[in-house]
Design brief:
Length: about 425
């Protein structure tokens, strides 16, 4: 009995000690036992509220990444926390083996808000992308009557929509696809923002069933196409009977200053992919919107997900989208995005090589002669601002959309001061 008591006390002391690990000890443990597919910035976060994050030592930071444009509604938005707690205490998961009230409620709200017939929920952005491709191929064979196993899908070069086998098969980034072959067949890549290349491919290959493209390429470094590109994509897809799949996992739901990025040209894709901010980072929710002719090609048993459409996820997502609408976050992003551009343009040309973005999705290309992007983000961390580089030298600026002008200017001042003092 004494031995058991001693062991329990020892375990209790060990647990107590683990509650007070230093930042470096937390990092070392993560590096020892976790996968190494991602390189985190060395800061250990423990709390988030609104536009701020705190590390385990209590230091506060302005968040200029927002979980890669996921936390549009801000960290731990009170409405999301409330709904999550209420639904988790009522009914969290059943699978789609049964009907639940939140599933249809969210689908009705989202389809009426955005203007498609149906919504098919998944969990992560890459799952939604895979779903869209399955939907397009099924449509290709059953509606467009493409010969079996000949359906081809086009992608824009430098696209990024995840790291599943399908996503890396569509990638032109060697970091994503090297040593993971063989790849999905009949995936072809063409230059982004090039309508001539798009039409040539349509003319040359009648078996093309879909063109999947980001209205703004995010991971590629916030690359914005020329005015008229989205309209041209719509017109060509209609002309050649090809489905336009718009990947708005990152750009959707207010991020670019409009409800959707395609709204900047008032265009409507055949399939819309959403994720990230669809649940405000509170619970993984993604999905695909399309009309009956396309979405109903996936009949019972042809697709599914254990957690996709869960009561908890759909209730959280419904509240998350309502927050975007009711708090006018797209309008805020549009207004404050102009300040981002104005302030960043003030940086010396030998420091800031290019500023590009829309709404509150910006990329600042910093001269490599000044410093590596990673090192710049470390200095920004020390100054109280968190973000990450893309492709080495592109500093991401994508704060939560609830940010106000004072907070935004504070973050931009940190960024400008840090860059000019390196």
């Amino acid at each position: 009995m004494q031995s058991l008591r001693q062991r329990m006390l020892a375990i209790s002391r060990e647990i107590e000690l683990k509650r007070f690990l230093s930042s470096q000890e937390v990092i070392d443990r993560d590096d020892r036992f976790g996968g190494r597919h991602f390189k985190p910035l060395p800061v250990v976060l423990s709390k988030g509220e609104g536009v701020y994050l705190w590390d385990i030592d209590g230091k506060r930071y302005l968040d200029f990444l927002a979980g890669f444009a996921t936390v549009n509604q801000g960290h731990c938005h009170p409405r999301l926390v409330k709904v999550l707690r209420e639904q988790a205490g009522k009914l969290a998961h059943t699978s789609r083996a049964f009907y639940t009230e939140p599933h249809g409620e969210f689908a009705e709200y989202l389809t009426k808000l955005l203007g498609w017939d149906r919504f098919l929920p998944m969990n992560t952005g890459v799952e939604a992308g895979d779903t869209a491709l399955k939907m397009a191929r099924r449509w290709a064979y059953r509606v467009k009557k493409i010969p079996n196993n000949k359906a081809t899908i086009l992608f824009a070069q430098r696209n990024f929509w995840g790291r599943s086998l399908a996503a890396i098969s569509a990638s032109t980034d060697p970091n994503s696809y090297t040593d993971f072959g063989p790849y999905i067949p009949n995936f072809e890549k063409i230059p982004y923002d090039d309508l001539q290349a798009l039409e040539k491919n349509f003319e040359d290959n009648p078996n093309i069933c879909a063109f999947m493209v980001e209205p703004i390429q995010g991971e590629a470094g916030v690359v914005i196409p020329k005015d008229g590109y989205l309209k041209g994509v719509r017109d060509l897809c209609t002309k050649y009977n090809v489905l336009w799949i718009a990947d708005e996992v990152q750009t959707g739901l207010g991020r670019t200053g409009k409800r959707l990025a395609v709204d900047h040209e008032n265009q409507r894709p055949d399939i819309l992919i959403l994720g990230k901010a669809l649940s405000g980072g509170m619970y993984p929710v993604s999905g695909v919107l399309a009309d009956d002719e396309i979405l109903l090609c996936l009949e019972t048993g042809s697709h599914g997900s254990t957690f996709g459409g869960s009561p908890l996820g759909q209730r959280v997502a419904l509240e998350a989208v309502k927050i975007v609408e009711e708090e006018k976050l797209a309008e805020n992003a549009n207004k404050l995005g102009k300040i981002v551009r104005e302030e960043l343009k003030k940086l010396p040309k030998d420091i800031a090589l290019e500023v590009r973005g829309r709404g509150l999705l910006y990329g600042l290309i910093v001269n490599k002669d000044l410093a590596e992007g990673w090192d710049i983000c470390l200095k920004l961390r020390d100054a109280g601002l968190l973000t990450r580089p893309a492709h080495g030298q592109i500093i991401r600026i994508s704060p939560p959309l609830i940010i106000n002008e004072e907070q935004l200017r504070e973050g931009l001042d940190i960024l400008k001061t840090t860059l000019t003092k390196i």
